[in-house]
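Bit of a strange request maybe. I'm writing a small parser for structure token strings and I need a real example to test against, not something I typed by hand. Could someone generate the tokens for this chain?
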Amino acid sequence: MINNQALRCIEILLVEDSPSDANLTIKGFQNAKIANNLHWVEDGETAMNYLRQQGEFANAPRPDLILLDLNLPGMDGREVLTEVKSDPHLKSIPVVILTTSTDDQDILRSYNLSANCYVTKPLDVYQFIQVVQLIKDFWLAAVALPRE
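Reply from user aminoacidic:
Good idea to test on real output. This should exercise your parser:
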């Protein structure tokens, strides 16, 4: 069953430093049957500027969903997650950790920092695309996302 999000455009912020992983994710969401705008930033500092609508992002839309890699240059994904979930204006935005790390400590820490889910990126391109499809199907079609 598709919820009423199909009637509006979903705003997604992808925080990913790997251009190849970002491109695969973007392509996966472009094939969605639900309208979405995917915005890509490559590091944590830029992500926080986007989320706080600072500088060049003064008119950036508030994301309905954040896809966050943990291993980022500079401010890493753990720090971004901490800031997002401690900010009263941002904490309601669901954060999906999308990373190569399979470390139990990373998984536990992400959930302790209030990540909404943790997804490990497969190394195989076809499996990666399947994972993106699952994320898309679940978060865009099945889940009711909060609106500010």
